[in-house]
From TrEMBL:
Pfam families: PFK
Pathway noted in the entry: Carbohydrate degradation; glycolysis; D-glyceraldehyde 3-phosphate and glycerone phosphate from D-glucose: step 3/4
Subunit relationships: Homotetramer.
Binding residues for substrate: 125-127, 162, 169-171, 222, 243, 249-252
Gene3D superfamilies (UniProt xref): 3.40.50.450, Phosphofructokinase domain
Family the UniProt entry places it in: Belongs to the phosphofructokinase type A (PFKA) family. ATP-dependent PFK group I subfamily. Prokaryotic clade 'B1' sub-subfamily.
Protein name: ATP-dependent 6-phosphofructokinase
UniProt xrefs under NCBIfam families: PFKA_ATP, PRK03202.1
Biological role: Catalyzes the phosphorylation of D-fructose 6-phosphate to fructose 1,6-bisphosphate by ATP, the first committing step of glycolysis.
């Protein structure tokens, strides 16, 4: 094998650039030529492909987003789209690929492997919603960004004795809400993985106000409902001086944390090692601090599980 390609696909996440850098530098270190593919599978099909050198990935490790851009390209689910992509791979002499993205992107990688072009997936998403990895690239940064916002919101919440409902990203997963909620000392964390009862949330709020805790933060995962809707339901049970805030895409951006950069570097390097061994159709993850490869087909049959013991822990710590 002489040439590999790299692309980022699906939702962007901080640390994707660090992963691209690691793949590129490790591959060059091993004597491979590396091609960057812009705009995910859309760019692959369009032939938006360029040769990288060590400097291409210089000054990128600290940058959020993805300098290779990302795009949604549903046409890649059809064989016709895949064959067009393969035409471009052949044109550029690219024999194998690293795909950084979520499980949608992994489907594309598996299709390419089935066509004879080994592709390896790295978990790049802030949502942490991918099976077989304790954390995804971008998750730690997103949690820390939410946490910084919660700390700021708490200042104003305390000053005016308000209750804030803070809605955070995460698609169908509650991981960001859970981690940021525990770290931010939330009164309550509302996530899709756990049923909730607005009346019980209100009763807890009332009790804690009676005990002297005059402000509160409730972290709400976007997969449950909108913050305004939740606040409206809550206000039916009393006047808690409610305000709601939607953090939105702010949570996607920013410089990756050390943890995300190190994770991205480890995953990227391992991907190149496995491609050199002729492996493809696998997704990498970190489990108990070890980088592990799993068959993509196996991964598609599993569901990600949020760390629900954090939910129970928060119940014990909230006052
Ligand atoms: P994520 O990778 O974050 O889950 P998406 O689900 O949007 O994000 O997938 C990203 C891209 O991966 C899609 O725009 C498409 O190009 C490709 N993709 C998604 N599903 C498939 C599939 N079943 N087969 C081939 N390619 C797919």
């Amino acid at each position: 094998m002489k040439r590999i390609g790299i692309l980022t696909s699906g939702g962007d996440a901080p640390g994707m650039n660090a992963a691209v850098r690691a793949v590129a530098r490790k591959a060059m270190h091993e004597g491979l030529e590396v091609y960057g593919i812009n705009y995910g599978y859309a760019g692959l099909v369009a032939g938006d492909i360029f040769k990288m050198d060590p400097i291409t990935v210089g000054d990128k490790i600290q940058r959020g987003g993805t300098f290779l851009y990302s795009a949604r390209y549903p046409e890649f689910a059809q064989v016709e789209g895949q064959l067009k992509g393969i035409e471009q791979l052949n044109k550029f002499g690219i024999e194998a690929l690293v795909v950084i993205g979520g499980d949608g992107s992994y489907h594309g990688a598996l299709r390419l492997t089935e066509h004879g072009y080994n592709a390896i997936g790295l978990p790049g998403t802030i949502d942490n919603d991918i099976p077989f990895t304790d954390q995804t690239i971008g998750f730690d940064t997103a949690v820390n960004t939410v946490l910084e916002s919660i700390d700021r919101i708490r200042d104003t919440a305390a000053s005016h004795e308000r209750t804030f409902v803070v809605e955070v990203m995460g698609r169908g997963a509650g991981d960001i809400a859970l981690w940021a909620g525990v770290a931010g000392g939330a009164q309550d964390i509302i996530i899709p993985e756990r049923d909730f009862d607005v009346k019980a949330v209100a009763e807890k709020l009332r009790a804690s106000r009676e005990h002297g805790q005059k402000h509160a933060i409730i972290v709400l995962a976007e997969g449950v409902m909108h913050a305004d809707e939740f606040s409206e339901k809550l206000s039916e049970y009393g006047d808690f001086h409610l305000r709601s805030t939607v953090l939105g895409h702010v949570v996607r951006g920013g410089s990756p944390t050390a943890s995300d950069r190190v994770l991205a570097s480890r995953l990227g390097s391992k991907a190149v090692e496995l491609l050199l061994e002729g492996k493809g159709g696998v997704a990498l993850g970190i489990e108990k601090n070890e980088i592990i490869a799993h068959d993509m087909l196996d991964l598609f049959n599993h569901k990600h599980h949020a760390m629900l013991d954090l939910y129970d822990l928060n119940e014990d710590l909230a006052y």
